[in-house]
Amino acid sequence: MEGAAIFSVLLALLCSRIMTVLTAQSMDDKLWCVCENANTCEDGVCTGDMCFLTLVYGQLVRGCFDKEHREQCYVPRMPGLHAECCVTNYCNNSTAPVEREEPKEPDSVIVLVAVPLLVLLVLSISVCGLVLWMRSRRSHQPLPEHEASMIKVPSGGDPTYGDIFDEFCTSGSGTGLPYLVQRTMARQISLVECVGKGRYGEVWRGTWMGESVAVKIFSSRDEQSWFRETEIYNTVQLRHENILGFIASDMTSKNSSTQLWLVTHFHELGSLYDFLQYSTLDPEGCLRMCLSVASGLVHLHTEILSTQGKPAIAHRDLKSRNILVKRNGQCCIADLGLAVIHSQSNDYLDVGTNPRVGTKRYMAPEVLDESIRVDVFESYKQTDIWALGLVLWEITRRTIVNGIVEEYRLPFFDVVPSDPSFEEMKKVVCVDQYRPCLHNRLHSHPILSTIAKIMKECWFQSPSARLTALRVRKTLAKLDQDQDGSTDKLKLDV
């Protein structure tokens, strides 16, 4: 009698549980999750297909999202960094790691068959109940000590964001931090000062873990640029010393308005445009700077064929304002909001949906006269080369040769107004076929004369006649080697 009663209770509980699951599946119910420090929080809870928990050096973020982001749940662990997902109600109500479990899709066939089985196969149901009970016990057991310690900060002190960046990048998981870690980290940043403004929004210097980071805050009207940069940085192996280092991307709320953040390495010298206003260069410094820009562009333009490779990328808005100067005198290319992606191996061309056009002053002739072949990726690379020639011209103007240097000016400053129209640029570049003037002093120095020759070959009216980024880099690299050889020989003679 006692056994029958226990069996009846067990059966009743099991029936209740199965019917609850079936009802939830048929209604496509969402999970209830604890929500903390996330944008979607409302009264401390949210609903979604999965709950998540991230912990970055003591800063906790909990919330929920839909199943489309499930791939973000499975990220490498490292000391001080933790990101997990789970698929039961309020399963993220903890600061300890939760059990990883692959979210399961509802199966309509199982739903239809389960009810008859419940009536006809009591023995099978009892066995299932026992299995579920054992599984439930196992899921509530604490993790082994070595697993739980994964979220503790190492006793040696916090690593820099550069260390964290290096750890995830070398793992081959992408160019930036995992998505859930990005969101946690972005909420730890304190904005310090605004260091730049433009049509896209503002750039702020922020601090995280005692170090400076750059926070580009996009205006709502330029959401497509933010989305495009985020998409490229999160899906492509872009890491290179001459490409701006990406850290995180996040969407935050402030004063009832949405802010779109892109967090990158901070370079205190600012953009190349800013730097050239107040600084001059010697020929060797000019060469180093030009070579670094060309190297960054080569990395963008090159498709890397491997398991963790990258497609080819054309920038489409290369200019001195979108290039940053590093403390070692090299440059790194930034602002990928207009970039075009191409994979020859997968046979696709992704132009994006951004309605914004490039900067008219830097537009190539085929863009201005609308003869560019928009379905051919090579066309976009050739427009980058045109703009590269103009950037090299800006750098050489500020290079001292025989005691002579020119004031900083934008390309075509002498023939168009400060904010030229599309038609004004078209007349100058396409109809008049005007090119920036090259000062006579450039031809009196071997470095500057070579760079001047490169510029001219970047400005051919015919796109196919222009140099490639690889050819520009090889020419400048050989020039740099020759200069090093001459310096070494001079030291030996002395």
TrEMBL record:
Its cofactor is Mn(2+); Mg(2+). The keyword tRNA-binding does not apply. InterPro entries: GS_dom, Kinase-like_dom_sf, Prot_kinase_dom, Protein_kinase_ATP_BS, Ser-Thr/Tyr_kinase_cat_dom, Ser/Thr_kinase_AS, Snake_toxin-like_sf, TGFB_receptor. GO terms for cellular component: BMP receptor complex. Residues 189-479 form the Protein kinase domain. It is found in: Membrane. CDD domains: TFP_LU_ECD_ALK1. The chain crosses the membrane at residues 109-133. Residues 1-23 form the signal peptide. Its EC number is 2.7.11.30. SUPFAM superfamilies: Protein kinase-like (PK-like) (SSF56112). It holds the Pfam family PK_Tyr_Ser-Thr. ATP binds at residue 216. Keywords: ATP-binding, Glycoprotein, Kinase, Magnesium, Manganese, Membrane, Metal-binding, Nucleotide-binding, Receptor, Serine/threonine-protein kinase, Signal, Transferase, Transmembrane, Transmembrane helix. It catalyses: L-seryl-[receptor-protein] + ATP = O-phospho-L-seryl-[receptor-protein] + ADP + H(+); L-threonyl-[receptor-protein] + ATP = O-phospho-L-threonyl-[receptor-protein] + ADP + H(+). Residues 159-188 form the GS domain. Belongs to the protein kinase superfamily. TKL Ser/Thr protein kinase family. TGFB receptor subfamily. This is receptor protein serine/threonine kinase.
